[in-house]
Specification:
The protein is an alpha/beta fold. It contains 14 helices and 12 strands. The protein has a domain of 236 residues: 3-Layer(aba) Sandwich (Rossmann fold). The longest helix is centred in the first third of the chain and has 23 residues.
Length: 359
């Protein structure tokens, strides 16, 4: 069995589904079920004895210790995190609590459990920490992509909290010998993505005829990684990654935010045209840029390809088409996650344009 934390979130639920589709090794899924955690993502696993769900916090040391002793997992995959930059700017408390304090307590629980294993189980145990490329800061146009040796230089409360968690994981390896692995991924997209992030927000607003908010000039560059490719990378690192090492995981798909929005609009123009035939691009509304907005991220993923044989299967074009088609096929999922509290947050954050549109 493996323990997956944050397994009801976007990447976490995709990882659990991918894992159980590919093998019969059970998953113990620990998730706090905050606003972005959604058991509906895992509906297809109802009644599946290979999936054990527990609602709880990685910061609850007593609960985590109890689960480790009861289920005796051979590995922990830590996907539990608060991950939205905009929310971290408004209120960083939850990011510090989960990403920093929670990771520390999870590491301590894992260390206590690992220390008591017999020699064979101790040697095979792994703690895989899933992190982000945002810990590396911002790249200038034309600068080389982030490698695993790039210094951490976070610029938002979110990325600072994730950088802190990376450093804790590294320290628990070097100080205590805990067999850790770390992955730093680029921007994920795909099914079950909570609609406050750029791609799902654009899809959902476009289908409703609402403004499509784009920060500043929209020329911020990100490397886009289809979530199924990321899940395969996590599985491969867990299987064969070298203990103590970090692996960057990228999609090899650098795109500006405006290009991403244009791509969504063009796909919807073809798959779900607006009444009257006007392009969805007409809904684009530039809004004031957010504070400290990093200009460019790019991942150099040659290490994971060279050492572990992983590379993304999806191009930006194929992954985006699959993503838009998934949202078109799952309007009930979108409706259910858009609670009144979520709509109020979007209205407050993006300002008058979204408020007038009822977003």
């Amino acid at each position: 069995m493996i323990l997956v934390t944050g397994g009801a979130g976007f990447i976490g639920s995709n990882f659990v589904l991918d894992w159980l589709a590919g093998c019969d090794e059970p998953v113990l899924n620990l998730d706090k079920l905050t606003y972005a955690g959604n058991l509906a993502n895992l509906k297809s696993l109802e009644g599946d004895a290979r999936h054990v769900f527990v609602q709880g916090d990685i910061g609850d040391a007593a609960l985590v210790g109890q689960l480790l002793r009861a289920y005796r997992p051979r590995a922990i995959v830590n996907l539990a995190a608060e991950s939205h930059v905009d929310r971290s700017i408004r209120d960083a408390d939850g990011f510090i609590a989960t990403n920093v304090v929670g990771t520390y307590r999870l590491l301590e629980a894992a260390r206590a459990y690992w220390s008591d294993l017999d020699a064979a189980d101790k040697a095979s145990f792994r703690f895989l920490h899933v992190s982000t490329d945002e810990v590396y800061g911002s790249l200038a146009p034309g600068a080389p992509a982030f490698t695993e040796g790039h210094p951490h230089a976070p610029n938002s409360p979110y990325s600072a909290s994730k950088a802190a968690s990376d450093h804790l994981v590294r320290a628990w390896y070097h100080t205590h010998g805990l067999p850790v692995l770390t992955t730093n991924c680029s921007n994920n997209y795909g099914p079950y993505h909570f609609p406050e992030k750029l791609i799902p927000l654009t899809i959902v607003n476009a289908l409703a005829g609402r403004p499509l908010p784009v920060y500043g000039d929209g020329q911020q560059v990100r490397d886009w990684l289809f979530v199924a490719d990321h899940c395969r990378a996590i599985g491969r690192v867990l299987q064969a990654g070298r203990v103590g090492e970090t692996y960057n995981v990228g999609g090899c798909n650098e795109q500006t935010n405006l290009c991403v929005v244009h791509t969504v609009c063009d796909l919807l123009d073809a798959l779900e045209p607006r009444p009257g035939g006007q392009s969805h691009r007409a809904l684009i509304a530039h809004v004031p840029d957010r504070p400290g907005h990093d200009r460019r991220y790019a991942i150099d993923a040659r290490k994971i390809e060279r050492e572990l044989g992983w590379k993304p299967a999806e191009t930006f074009a194929t992954g985006m088409r699959k993503t838009v088609q998934w949202y078109l096929a799952h309007p009930d999922w979108v409706r259910d996650v858009q609670s009144g509290a979520y709509r109020a947050w979007v209205s407050q954050h993006y300002g008058a344009a979204s408020a007038k549109a009822g977003a």
